[in-house]
Amino acid sequence: MRRVDFDKVSVHRTPEESPGYLLWRVSTRWRRSIEEVLKPLKLTHPQFVVLAVTSWLTRTGEKASQAEIARHAGLDPNTTSQVLRGLQAKGPVERPRSIDERSKYPVLTEKGSRLLEKALPAVEGADAKFFAVLDLKKTGLLSALQKLT
Known about the structure:
149 residues, single chain, mainly alpha, elongated, Arc Repressor Mutant, subunit A, 8 helices
């Protein structure tokens, strides 16, 4: 078996010094905590994000295209379309067609609004619990994450 000489190929002495590795580990743990609170609501994490983004973008009665929802959710348009299709099948979202048959402007149904009213506090609670070990303002983590997005 050939071994990798990490001293030659990596700038880090250990994985724990790699920001990418640490971000991977943190994001994996965080995502598990979010999925745990969404499971009883029968929502996946991508479904929650798309539902929340759709509601946020349409909160003043304006229309939001699937492409705009994808952009705000940080997902590719095909994935967003699949998630919206699944949400439509379960009832929380409607996707009425516009004059252009290809364009759809999703909106939350009454069921979707009630679901988000349960899911959002649950997710925010999981976030608060997960990040409780840090003072987000003092550590600068919130502004660092904002820069990275």
